[in-house]
Design goal:
Elements lengths: L2 H34 L5 H9 L3 H10 L6 H11 L2 H13 L6 H6 L3 H8 L9 H29 L9 H17 L4 H17 L5 H14 L1 H21 L1
Helix pairs in contact: 1-2, 1-3, 1-8, 2-8, 7-8, 10-11
Length: 245
């Protein structure tokens, strides 16, 4: 490994440690669910490699039953993962110039990876392209390891998996709390919360996700200048705060 690659890896790895601990439990939970449904453990590894969609994989366990049409599977998965299209719009500028790495970076864009990359502060002397790649690769490997570990354990031991899917919700809450602490401007959070509540009331629990994402995007675009100004101000103030510390 070259010196530049080594520096990029060293810069990326510590940032992904929280994802490592989370994905071992989350992936392990999926592995337990899939093997408890009667599938061999190695399918957990295959799905982790080629699908790599946390909540989508959890939902897929129940949709692998006979009689479920491919159209139903497509619609459900498209609804669950629709939020990634909004992540993609946010990361368009950051992913410019990523070259051959761009398809893999797009494929490995998860909620957690997005959280790390959208607020990434690249250390001086570290390649942004390599940093993004290592964060994405490490998170993917963590998920593969977690799913495989859960699959192997599930194939050897029997567990009561009732309620285990709630760990995804727990991770989302943890990410939201971290974002709240790391950012002084909480306007995007309030916009997202209001959009979710309004659409939940209007469309119901089964159909509110896509309308909420559309409303959230509209709100962010409406207050874009205000949010960007707050972000710029925060970034300028950070060096002074560090000097005072």
């Amino acid at each position: 490994m070259s010196h530049e690659l080594k520096n990029s890896f060293i810069a990326a790895f510590p940032r992904t440690i929280p994802i490592l601990t989370g994905y071992l439990f989350l992936g392990g939970g999926f592995g337990l669910l899939l093997t408890s449904a009667g599938y061999p453990w190695y399918w957990t590894t295959i799905m982790a490699i080629v699908i790599y969609a946390g909540m989508g994989q959890y939902v897929a366990v129940n949709m692998l039953a006979p009689g479920v049409s491919l159209i139903d599977v497509f619609l459900v998965q498209a609804t669950i993962n629709a939020r990634h299209s909004f992540y993609g719009i946010t990361m368009l500028q950051k992913y410019n110039g990523m070259g051959k790495l761009k398809p893999y970076l797009i494929f490995t864009m998860t909620d957690e990876t997005f959280s790390l990359l959208c607020s990434a502060k690249i250390p001086e002397g570290v390649s942004e392209k390599q940093y993004f790649f290592f964060v994405s690769l490490l998170d993917h490997l963590y998920w593969i390891c977690g799913c495989t570990l859960g699959g192997v354990i599930g194939s050897l031991l029997k567990f009561d998996t009732t309620g285990i899917e709630m760990i995804m919700t727990s991770l989302f809450l943890t990410i939201a709390i971290d974002q709240w602490k790391d950012n002084k401007d909480h306007l995007p959070v309030f916009i997202g919360g209001i959009a979710a509540v309004v659409c939940l009331v209007i469309f119901g629990a089964e159909h509110f996700i896509i309308p909420a994402l559309i409303l959230l995007t509209a709100g962010l675009l409406l207050f874009r200048k205000r949010i960007e100004a707050a972000t710029t101000t925060e970034a300028l103030c950070e060096p002074e705060e560090r000097e005072e510390e």
